[in-house]
Design a protein that fits this description.
The protein is of the alpha/beta class and 434 residues long. Helices cover 30% and strands 25% of the residues. The protein has twelve helices and 23 strands. The chain has helices at residues 24-31, 40-58, 74-82, 92-100, 117-125, 136-148, 188-198, 219-239, 265-283, 296-299, 333-337, 426-429, and strands at residues 9-11, 17-19, 22-23, 35-39, 62-67, 86-89, 108-110, 130-133, 153-160, 164-165, 170-171, 182-183, 202-208, 245-247, 289-292, 303-315, 319-324, 343-345, 355-360, 369-376, 384-388, 409-413, 416-421. Helix 8 runs parallel beside helix 9 (265-283). It binds pyridoxal-5'-phosphate (PLP).
């Protein structure tokens, strides 16, 4: 039997998969497939554990920010902000979504390595509380845009701390080769701080770094915190400005397979906060407001995707293709980077997973797969296939490839379900066609 590693998942009395008390087979029948299902209970549980760890380790000095690129829609913005999180956006579209959800500009952080002039102007007009400046050109451009509007825009600086964090290794050097941020080692980041301090229409509030994603270890985070405090000290000593805002980014790993082994958030937080307290004391700095920016770890395990099994092609000695009514248009992650997933048949969840399947989508690409050679229960046409941990970077990376329709998203909470994103229609597809 498959190990359901996420607290919101269970197997009910019928032997079917359930999410937050809702029968997955019933959800598939009621809303159709493919279907994104998100557990509001799980999203809120993770948000609370982050907020709580800020209480425990920083005395409430700072807060978590939800990186909305993982899963952006109005209801998600409302849920995370109701738990006390800020929202990070990386485009005008994500900014618009957060604003339309009622998030106030002062709780929005705007990231991105090449924000357009119109996106920057939109952010200044929306009184975004923190624009994270990526490069020197952007610094000058934003100063000019804010000036034209008679505004003084709060900014922080995206810094490349020189840490390359991978899932199972981390290298302290390198990472100069990144399109994101200002280089620390060459002095570019300090140079930007100096320019920001001098800029008439900018107010430098802090520093930011983000070292990677799906990171399973705490050492890279600890090292990044140490390096960033060094820059904070240099800015204090040489520019006479003590910054009160340090954002250490996101990237905390989640389960895609039951064997994925990552460190509980509390351990990251404990190790990083110990280093921060130690270095602040050593450097004579007051404890800044600390921010972290998780996306995947808030939305990822809260989501599952449900499909109906169609054609099954067993090619002896080669593989068994099990085709579903979704594919790379609603989950491109396997096609993009061979992402791991756990699959099971929701209507056979209590049976042994003794069949090895390649889960194929319906797009006209051989690479349109969701998973290869993965154990599932013995499949038949009409079964409901569930793919776990699809809450992050699935809906947000979806497309209309082959003019397929983006599926609806249903939010479930304590046995109740509701649509939070409607499924697309054929009319939606031709909406902008002339
Ligand atoms: C993507 C991203 C995040 C979130 O990363 P996760 O791995 O989803 O936690 C946070 N900050 C920045 C700048 C990012 O680009």
């Amino acid at each position: 039997m498959v190990n359901l590693y996420t607290p919101c998942l269970s197997i009910n009395e019928k032997g079917y998969l359930a999410i937050s008390g809702c029968d997955a087979v019933e959800l598939a029948r009621q809303y159709g497939t493919p279907l994104y299902v998100m557990s509001e209970d799980e999203i809120r549980r993770v948000c609370r554990s982050y907020v709580e760890s800020f209480q425990n380790f920083y005395g409430g000095n700072g807060r978590p920010i939800y990186a909305s690129k993982a899963f952006s829609c109005k209801e998600m913005c409302r849920i995370v902000t109701s738990e006390g999180l800020d929202v990070e956006v990386v485009s005008g579209g994500e900014l618009y979504t957060a604003l339309e959800a009622g998030v106030s500009g002062k709780h929005i952080h705007f990231q991105g390595n090449n924000k357009s002039c119109s996106e920057l102007a939109f952010a200044v007009d929306s009184a975004v509380g923190n624009i994270v400046v990526d490069n020197l050109q952007e610094l000058r451009r934003l100063d000019r845009i804010a000036g034209e509007k008679g505004a003084v825009q709060p900014v922080s600086l995206r810094v490349k701390p020189g840490i390359d964090a991978h899932t199972h290794e981390f290298i302290r050097t390198g990472q100069v080769d990144s399109k994101f941020g200002l280089d620390l080692a060459s002095g570019e980041a300090f140079q930007a701080a100096k320019l920001a301090v001098q800029a008439e229409h900018l107010r430098l509030i802090g520093l930011h770094c983000h070292i990677g994603s799906q990171i399973m270890e705490k050492e890279p985070f600890v090292h990044a915190a140490e390096v960033m405090l060094g820059l904070l000290r240099q800015i204090k000593e040489e520019l006479g400005l003590e910054l009160d805002h340090l954002n250490l980014g996101g990237g905390f790993g989640i389960h895609y397979k039951e064997t994925d082994d990552f460190i509980p958030y509390n351990e990251y937080m404990e190790a990083v906060s110990a280093k921060i307290h130690e270095k602040c004391a050593a450097f004579g700095l007051k404890l800044p407001q600390i921010y972290i920016e998780p996306g995947r770890s808030i939305a990822g395990e809260a989501g599952i995707t449900l499909y109906t099994v169609g054609a099954i092609k067993e090619i002896p000695g080669v593989r068994n293709y099990v085709s579903i009514d979704g594919g790379m248009f609603e989950n491109p992650r396997y096609a993009l980077y061979q992402a791991d997933y756990t699959c099971l048949l929701a209507n056979k969840a209590s049976q042994p997973a003794d069949y090895i399947a390649t889960i194929a989508g319906k797009c006209c690409e051989s690479g349109d797969l969701i998973q290869e050679h993965t154990p599932v229960q013995r499949p038949e046409e009409g079964d409901i296939l569930a793919v776990l941990s699809t809450g992050a970077y699935n809906y947000s990376m979806s497309s209309n490839y082959n003019r397929n329709l983006r599926p609806p998203c249903v939010m479930v909470r304590e046995g109740q379900s509701r649509v939070v994103i409607k499924g697309e229609t054929y009319q939606d597809l031709i909406r902008n066609d002339m």
